Amino acid sequence: MKVLILGVNGFIGYHLTKEILSTTDWEVYGMDIDDNRIKELENSRLHFVEGDIEINKEWIEYHIKKCDVVMPLVAIATPKMYVEDPLSVFHLDFEANLDIIKKCAKYKKRIVFPSTSEVYGISPDAEFDEDKSPLCTGPINKERWIYSASKQLLDRVIWAYGNHENLPFTLFRPFNWVGPKLDSIEIAKEGSSRVVTQFIASLLFKKPIYLVDGGKQMRSFTYISDGIAALIKILKNENNICNKQIINIGNPKNNISIKDLAYLMRDIFSKHEKHKNDKEFSQIIEIDSKEFYGESYQDIYNRKPSIEKAKKLLNWEPTVNLEDALKLSIDAFINEYE
Ligand code: UGA
Questions:
Q1: For residue 42, which of 86, 118, 271, 329 sits 20 to 30 Å off, Cα-Cα?
Q2: Alpha carbons 225 and 300: distance in angstroms, whole number
Q3: C-alpha 297 to ligand 1 mean position (Å)
Q4: Nearest CA to ligand 1 atom 14
């Protein structure tokens, strides 16, 4: 099988490519603007080209024709960017990806597309169900929702192409996947990383850990290897079981408040071999979301996936508990950084 991965050097692209190369005989054709993660995966079945999906459109069209399945993973996916630069989110996440979706529809090429847990937004359901839960966002002046709304419309466009023009597709919805190489310490230094990497950077640099609005928000953190195991099954698509399906990929057992997450991470860090003798550890401080993100941010207080569909279709279940997921992530960042 030939797999086209756009954004092959990103967090998911890197881990997925690594798994494909070590456990299958598939070929990976990958494009990214950077190669800092992927360069360590040198392999004759990895065909990497440095490029930009908004510019190198001919290369992309040629490879959509040539490959068996297309995974467009390029997107801005950090909440700080949604409020600081919503138009870039629209141009890249929505417009550039729409172009790729249309090309897949033109050539009837299977697309495995990353939707997001964010599409459920502030849905009232206790557990989010792919085919039943309402998708709820806030008012337009809360610019955070541009990512959710962009992704939701792309989900609907793909669904419509599938139903009306026979585009073969699967949508997957990652729920707070974490692990080595999620964002980077450099991004975290600017304060614009996703929460787990942000907290690791604070712990490494002895900076305060900030709990936005007190940290009552809940997230279900999923370790990257569990996410990738599900994705490999979706790509294999035995008996076409994943065709026209939307599949949550998350770990409802790892549901925790951000406040408890902060204390747990500081505890794990303070017991780490390389840091157990440190003289001080980060303070944990509450901060108003308006100060941390700005006026146009709005938070999501509950985000727990139903994974019944993934269990049934993929015969898959997450296996890495929260403490192990955090230990593995903290350890990897410490080793990489130091
Ligand atoms: C994320 C991002 O939108 C995407 O990565 C993705 O689509 C999706 O959700 C996902 O990974 O499933 P969110 O979970 O809000 O959104 O992103 P984080 O930046 O990781 O924040 C999690 C929570 O921690 C938020 O409530 C935030 O306010 C809080 N937070 C974040 C803090 O309290 N302190 C910080 O320093 C950073």
A1: 329
A2: 25
A3: 11
A4: 176
Residue 189, pLDDT score: 84
> Which of 258, 259, 296, 303 for a ligand 1 pocket mutation test, highest count of atoms within 8 Å of Cβ?
258
* Angle, CA of 220, 222 and 223, to the nearest 5°: 150
77 CA from centroid of ligand 1 (Å) = 9
* Residue-level pLDDT at 70: 98
Residue 190 pLDDT:
83
- Asked if residue 170 lies in contact with residue 252, where contact means CB atoms within 8 angstroms, the answer is no
Give the pLDDT of residue 38.
97
User: What DSSP state is assigned to residue 27?
Assistant: E
Q: Record the tokens describing residue 174, joined without a space.
A: 């990652």
pLDDT at 265: 98
Nearest-CA residue for ligand 1 atom 5 is: 77
Per-residue b or e along 15-54, where b marks 16 or more CB atoms closer than 10 Å to that residue's CB: bbbbbbbeeeebbbbbbbeebebbeebeeebbebeebebe
Distance 28 CA to ligand 1 centre (A): 30
For the chain, residues with pLDDT lower than 50 are none
pLDDT score of 132: 98
